[in-house]
């Protein structure tokens, strides 16, 4: 059985989710701030999303991490490598709660997750599915070096695939 | 983190869910047959339900298990030890795919799971929720020694509650 490995960056710790993460995670998903990730979502749906992102580690050998600010131990969001059965391919995703946005945490966490995917997991490609109206997330994908890929298969009518350049090569 | 156990009975193995168990699980939940088990579920929800059952082991210390045919290795269904944030108390659930029905598989699996819940997991009570129209499940749960509990809070207005006496699992 695989558990999320702990990764550290300059300011953040990426660690396995704990049950106590659920309440703040569900509060975010219940809010309008979650509108670009399918929200607002009720508690039942939030739980199943949360727990399936944890279960992903055992099933697929990759999944999601809780993102903590190392200095304060504050739970600031989630970053993940996911491929639920309804996704056409593997995805790198990120969420930073509103109180912790605009500090570069999403970029820092997503870089660590991407490096883990292309390094330890030896992925050769990955996309990020982003709501076409989510300007902040699209800007972040660009900072990561990803570019919109009109040929990427889509999983719904809203999200568009942004493809991450493979390590040492082109997108 | 808690690992899913391996429980052997005369004809069955209850074991950790694997990715390849998803397709028969999803096929069950896409079929009309699943309406008594909360289905049909769309592609997103069937993944959520399947993968969340895996994540529950890490988050809660119990979760889902695949029922496997001990002789052939074929997946026959699923067992769930559940206590979700939005549910009132610990639940024992089971489902058996069409081809395994009528052979006592659900009874054999549910009985072993009940003994595990009251033994290894140390539960002091457990309920099973079911549709009042689910004649087979109602017969099975009563054969297990569970009793209709009209006073128990249900998870859904269309589900009635049977309670498993803890004494049955301690032998």
Task: Describe this protein's structure.
- The complex is a heterodimer of chains A (171) and B (171).
- Helices cover 29% and strands 23% of the residues of chain A.
- Chain A contains four helices and eight strands.
- Chain A has a five-stranded antiparallel β-sheet with strand order 1-2-3-4-5. In chain A, strands 6-8-7 form a three-stranded antiparallel β-sheet, with helices on one face.
- In chain A, a hairpin with a 5-residue loop joins strand 3 and strand 4.
- The model of chain A has no long low-confidence stretch (mean pLDDT 95).
- In chain B, the strands form two sheets. A five-stranded antiparallel β-sheet of chain B has the order 1-2-3-4-5. In chain B, strands 6-8-7 form a three-stranded antiparallel β-sheet, covered by helices on one side.
- Chain B is globular, with a radius of gyration of 15 Å.
- Chain B is an alpha+beta fold and 171 residues long.
- At the A-B interface, helix 2 of A face helix 2 of B.
